[in-house]
Design brief:
binds erythose-4-phosphate
Amino acid sequence: MQIFLDSSDTTQIRDLAATGLVDGITTNPSLIAKAGRPMLEVIAEICGIVEGPISAEVVAKDAKTMLAEGRKLAGIAPNVVVKLPLTRDGLTACAELAREGINVNVTLCFSAVQALLAAKAGAAYISPFIGRLDDHGADGVGLIADIRAIYDNYGYDTEILAASIRNAEHVKGSALAGADCATIPPEVFSTLFKHPLTDKGLDQFLSDWAKTGQSIL
Ligand code: E4P
């Protein structure tokens, strides 16, 4: 499964990209607002840090303006993926941008039939928001499994990008349900490395090693 970071914080992105485990980045208007910097500048900087897909979201609500914004965002760097909301206008713009060879990430997906329409519109990625669905009393990971089954039934190559991830269980559930990618907040990504038995085991190994008085280098 590809791991994306859900962040506009270039300091955090640079730090975590150094692990070699980060395949791409997603942003949204709220994350850009949090960065407190001009959007085009932030996206350009992120594109220089991570070679993989970098999602940059439009803010228009009508298809015509979405297309203009999407083309402008796609012009920032070849690895920009234009993020469009899952609305009728969003999917109309998606179909056109896909025809022009621009990769689109359709965001704010909360149902399997929405995901089916996004695939028909030629989306490169569909972003089901599993945390927000769970908050709403629904089954976020279950939606990933449903979309996986539908896409496999018809051979759609739209990649399932599990989004709105809140914890390690969401990452595990998304991977088990067959998501192609998961976009993970930096704080959650940092928890994925950790297990108390790893720390305990390492302490024991290193304390036994110290008693030998040896050195590898
Ligand atoms: C996805 O691309 C969104 O940026 C993100 O995952 C939304 O997550 P949230 O529900 O934590 O805001």
